Amino acid sequence: MNNRLQSFISENVPKIDAEMHKLIQKENPTPQLKESMIYSVNAGGKRIRPLLVLAVLEDFMKTSKDALKVACAVELIHTYSLIHDDLPCMDDDDYRRGKLTNHKVFGEATAVLAGDALQTLAFTILASLEEVDSSKAIRLVGLLASASGAKGMVGGQILDMEGEKVSLTLEQLEEVHLHKTGALLSFCIEAGAVLANATELETCQLREYSKNIGLAFQIKDDILDITSTTELLGKPVNSDTASQKSTYPSLLGLDGAKQQLQKYHENALESLSFLDKEGSLLELFADYIVQRDI
Amino acid sequence: MNNRLQSFISENVPKIDAEMHKLIQKENPTPQLKESMIYSVNAGGKRIRPLLVLAVLEDFMKTSKDALKVACAVELIHTYSLIHDDLPCMDDDDYRRGKLTNHKVFGEATAVLAGDALQTLAFTILASLEEVDSSKAIRLVGLLASASGAKGMVGGQILDMEGEKVSLTLEQLEEVHLHKTGALLSFCIEAGAVLANATELETCQLREYSKNIGLAFQIKDDILDITSTTELLGKPVNSDTASQKSTYPSLLGLDGAKQQLQKYHENALESLSFLDKEGSLLELFADYIVQRDI
C-alpha cells in the first residue's frame, strides 16, 4: 500500500474506533445492549467508509470538528447492517472476520435490537453535530437515510436476496451493488463534500467517483473470491461459485471482470481530475481498492 | 367515547393512513419490500401516537403543513418495532390484531429488512419537512432518535426481556414502561409542542402529561389482561399471569393497580391546567386511555 495512504489510515483508524466507543458510551445503553453494540463495532474491518469521509476533507484541505462524528455515523449504519445480515434468517453466518457473529454471542433477540439501536444512534449523532449549521445537518440526515433505507442499502439487500434465486444480467448485478454497497459509499463521499463546502459541480464529480469505486470494490471482491486463498482472505473462497450466485466473473469471465475493474478504476481517477493534483487521498483509495489482495 | 374525540379520530385516522401509504410509495421500494412495509402499516391499531401529535397542535390552535408527516414518522417507528418484536427470536407471535404477523407472510428475512427500512424512512421524512426551519427539523430528528434507540424504546425492549426472567420492583417496572412505550409517546407530545411553538414551560408541563398517560396506558393494559375477555380484547387474556411476568396488578393487586391508574390519570389532567380550558383533546385522550375497554 502507498505510504501516504498507509499513514493516513494508521493515524485515523484509532481515532474512529475511539470516537465510536465514546458515542456508544454516551448513549448509555443497558449493560447487555452496550456489550452487544460494542462487540460488533470492535469486530474491526477496514473502516473504508469513515476513512473516505475524512479523505474528502483532507483532499479539499478543510477541517471540520464534525467530520469524525459523521464518519462514525456511517460506520455504525454499516455495522448494524452486518449484524442483521449475519442473522440465521438472513445469511446465517457464525463467523465474521474470524470472530463469532453477534447473535452467536448475545443471542438473536439482542442482535436484532443492537442492530436497531446502532441504526438509531447514527441519526442521534447527526442530530448533535456541533459545528455545521442545521441546514447542513438536516441535509446529512436526508442523505444518510436515503443511502441506508429502501432506496439504498436495504433495497440492495432485498435485490440481492431475490437475485440469489435467478441469473442476473450485468445491468441487474450493477443495480444490486449500486444499492447494497454503493449507496453508503456514495454517502461517505457526499457527506465529505458537504462538510468541505464543495461546489455543486465538484459534488457531482465526486458522485461519479464514488459510483465507480463502489462498483470497483465489488468486482474486486468477486475476483478475490476466485483468485485468493482462504488463508489470505480470512473467509472461504469460491463461495460464489458454490452458491451459483451471479458475479462479475460468472457473467464476464475472469479476464472480462478484470477489464471491467480496470474501466471502473480509470473512470474513478478521471472524475477526480478537477482536484488538479496527483496523489490525492481519493486517488490512492481508488488504487488501493483495485490493487488490494484482501 | 367522547363525541369530540370520536370525530377527531374519525377525521384524522384516514388522513394518517393515506399519508403513510404515500410516503412509502414515494420511497419506491422493490415490490416485495413495499408489500411487506405496507402490510404492517395496514395492520391497523389505534394510531394513538400520530393522533397525539395532531392533538397537541389542535389544543394550541395551531396548524402545520408538516404535522401529518411528523405524525406518520413516529407511527412508522412504532410499526417497525412491532415487526421486529413479533419475530421468532423475540416474542414469536404468529398473529397481531387478528392478522398474520409480517414474518409469517413474507418470511423472516424480509420482515427484518422491512422493519429496518421503516425505521430509516421515519428519518427520511423528518429530513424532508417543508414548513419548519432546519433547526426545528434537526431537533425533531434528535428527539425521535433519542426516543427510539438505546436510551428509549429499544432500551426498554432489552429491559423488558431481562425483566421476564426475574421479579421486578414497582420502580423497575416503571423504568421498563417509561422506556419501552413511554419514550415514543413523549416524542409525540414534544414533537407537537415543537410544531406548535410551545414555550419551554408549556413543553415541560406537556412532558409531565405524556409521562403520566404513558404509564396509565400500560397499567390499563395490565388491568384489561385480567378483567377483559379474549373476544373483547382480540388477544388472549391472562397472558401475563400465565407467563408470571411482573405487572402492576401482580405487584399492587388489582385494586392497587386501579388506584395507581387513577393517580396517573389525575396527574395527567393536572399537568394540562396551563391550557386553561376544559375538554381539550389531550384531556379527552387521557380520559379515553383510562376508560377504554380494549
Automatic annotation (TrEMBL), chains A, B:
**PROSITE patterns registered for this protein in UniProt:** POLYPRENYL_SYNTHASE_1, POLYPRENYL_SYNTHASE_2
* Signal sequence region: none
By its UniProt entry, which CDD domains does this protein fall under?
Trans_IPPS_HT
- Family matches, as InterPro entries: Isoprenoid_synthase_dom_sf, Polyprenyl_synt, Polyprenyl_synt_CS, Prenyl_diphosphate_synthase
Cofactor list = Mg(2+)
Q: Which UniProt keywords apply?
A: Isoprene biosynthesis, Magnesium, Metal-binding, Transferase
PANTHER family registered for this protein in UniProt: FARNESYL DIPHOSPHATE SYNTHASE (PTHR43281:SF1)
Q: Which NCBIfam families match?
A: FPPsyn (NF045485)
Q: Which family does it belong to?
A: Belongs to the FPP/GGPP synthase family.
* The name this protein goes by in its record: Polyprenyl synthetase family protein
Give the organism's phylogenetic lineage: Bacteria, Bacillati, Bacillota, Bacilli, Bacillales
